[in-house]
Amino acid sequence: MHALRSRHDAFPDGNGPWLPWGNGRSYGDVCCNHDGTLIEARAANRILELDTHAGFVRCESGVLLADLQRLLVRHGWFLPVVPGTELITVGGAIANDVHGKNHHGAGSFGHHVRALRVLRSDGERRKCGPSEDAERFAAVVGGLGLTGVITEAELALRPLSGGGWLRQRALRTADLADTLEQLAGMDREHEYTAAWLDCLARGRRLGRGVVMAADHDRVRRPPPMRERTLSVPFSPPVSPVRSWSLRLFNEFYYRARRRDSGWQPCWYRSALHPLDGVRDWNRLYGRGGFVQCQVRVPEGDHERVLARMIEFAARRGEGSFLVVLKRFGARPAAGLLSFPRPGYTLALDFPWRGPATAELVRSLYDIALDAGGSVYPAKDAVMTAQQFRRAFSDHDTFRNWRDPGLCSDFARRVELT
Amino acid sequence: MNQRHILVIGATSAIAEWAARRLAARGHSLALAGRDRERLEDVAADLRNRGASHCSVHPFNAERPDTIPDIFENAAGRRPVTDVLIAHAVPQPSSWPGEPGLQRYIRVNTTSAIACMHAAAEHMAGHPGGGLIAWLSSPAALRGRRKNWLYGATKAAGDIALEGIGGQYREQGVRTLLLRPGPTRTAFNAGLEPAASWAEPQTVGERIGDLMHARKGGEHFIPRAWWLPATILRHMPTWLLSRLKG
Fold this sequence. Notes:
The complex is a heterodimer. Chain A is an alpha+beta fold.
């Protein structure tokens, strides 16, 4: 591992292939490089310019979103897009063009990058943005770190009228049609929306769940005195995530909710990043870990396709306690390989039980791809090269922008070399 | 005196930077000394954005200990320096550096550090709010071990000097803080294979920032749990220590 200590550092000498590495929170192998060396960018973490009047920030790429957000909230600003975890770097957020619960209104992370700088393996430094060298910019955003090391970025911010508090509401839904209808309805009025699904419910109840909506609260309140953090201290030798324990959890989680929770105040970290409150939560899946299947299904026939996917997973008796459904807005993708595009995205995680799990996830991918959908590379660990080509029609254009000195396990697997 | 003026020497090192961020968030004003002006400017911009009331940069070459009094003079342009963190060091060379290399190594790690302590004590002595000298030492300074005795020796000399200076300037209100961070994931340790037990520079730096903000004196292991292995190491008989690998 080579540490990039600042944006001024030169590209490391020696044999590649190299791969820029942020905080290693991608679920799959886009952040792995077993045949080469990682360039760890966490130490390049300076906030170079913060304009609290115009609302933008310029920083090095190793800054964690958590670190940045804490500072911004103090100044009455907010990152316009935050994913489910804020324990990722700005560079990683751009390279994976992450999205949040507000995609329907705000688009993805890449839509708010005003400019960025990349360091190529030949030592060249390039600046690009939506209005400067825009083609390169489209390749770097969502470019999975394969187009050069992002060294700094300038991000537009969103003003807060109150503080870091949100008001949140949860609605219980009866089936998939109800969930989709509530989700679309909430999207029209609220900034953040997403749905949790009971993936093991079948028959009439298929696709039932809880739709959550949240907005920034205008009321000023002091921030919480203490934020509770739980932690999973070790990986149990046997995964406690089993079909019976899931069924129990899902039933309880679903029934413990009221039909309509009403509006509740919620600090931004617990509303938007609930999993960050449980350190090492992934250990719950046992030593084998888990894989996630996150796909996008275009609008139109989505209800039938989503139902097929949920049923397919439920029939195998496999599933996760976190199944998330979210509607993407109509905004065109920011990058060539950006995952967020119009449609619905469904994420399911499965405890890893070897090749059978890989086969299950690939079959689910196929259902989405047959419907004209795509797969999220940042979460993927099993996609085949053929599936990748089907998911991303711009893969050939992207190849022209690739940095030959950089590669990842993911790129080798899907033959993006 | 609530808002203090803190000089950080070796400010581009990861631990010092996180300590400075913690102090900046408390609204203190900072002066940064380090080798590379370009990087210092970035660190200074970062600290201003994180809340430092003022932040100036002072390029400094640790091979020239004679320039240290000037650093204090320049850093104290607007107001006297009330606290200093001495955090510059070079890791143990991988092979014997030879006589000129050895002199240079000791000049950077020991001579310039002791000169900083002395200059700081002289500068702060008699100030109404007193002063604090924080010295980033190492558990390596506790005993001579086969893998890092040279580094340990340069740091141990600093420890003794700090202790003595603390005594000499006690009546003039100067306090001393001896910091011993355990292994940390920083560029300083880039040559070693990191273990899961290694601390993050953020954790270590923020603790240092908190200790400095609270004007704590004495010796501190970071994380605290290092106190136990360090105490065992400190009292280990030489015949056993010399047989320890690593």
